[in-house]
Amino acid sequence: MSNVTSGSGYDNYGKGQAWEDFLDPDEKLLWEDAPIARVELTPGHIFLALFGLPFLGAGVFIIGTGFRALLGADVDIGDFGNGFFLMLFGLPFFAIGVGCCFAPWMWIPIMRRRTRYALSNKRAFVATNFMQRKIEIYEIEPRAKLELEIGKTQAVYFHKTLSYDSDDGKQTTQVGFEGLEDGHEVYRLLRRLQLDAQGQKATPE
């Protein structure tokens, strides 16, 4: 777990700002850390890759067919146009396939290198610096369900967001600290904050 020193955590991430700049007068920083920039192979990643393989194969085939048509077009404008159209038509399939098959291994490490976490005695902070600097702040709800996920890296989830897709279907997204080296300590801190808010004492572990 990262030690907390005054003004250190967010300043290393941002432009001259410290976590303390976002705290209330009665708020105390308890923990800060950065996720490990490593991706684990999960069933979700495997499913996404399998889903994307047909798109990738179709894209390569269509673009390849168009490219061969271009090479054999000579001075035939019709063949040249058909080849160019096929290459453009195959690009979306190729992009979807590449995104599904390779995005988790490329996108997640990039995002984690630009992410910082912090926990106070009142709130949780998730700061990101990709395209734009953003800080998401979540109140620690006394009776919110906490989830500890253990693997090669660990994650602690403390909040859920509800959204709706284009068909008005509900989608629930878990929010938390992902890619942790030691999720147990963060879980214990969050649980202690919940019990304190309920007027109970944490059970020693």
Q: What class, by secondary structure content?
A: alpha+beta
CATH architecture of the largest domain: Roll
**Rg measurement, Å:** 24 Å
CATH top level assignment of the largest domain: Mainly Beta
**Total number of distinct structural domains:** 2
Tally the beta strands.
7
State the low-pLDDT regions, or none: 1-14
- The dominant shape is elongated
H/E element sequence: HEHHEEEEEEH
> How many strands, what sense, and barrel or not for the largest sheet?
4 strands, antiparallel
Strand order of the largest sheet: 1-2-3-4
Looking at the structure, the CATH topology of the largest domain is PH-domain like
Mean pLDDT: 81
Helix content: 40-55%
Question: What is the number of helical segments per DSSP (H or I, 4+ residues)?
Answer: 4
Distance between termini? 17 Å
Please indicate the percent range of residues in DSSP E strands (runs of 2 or more): 25-35%
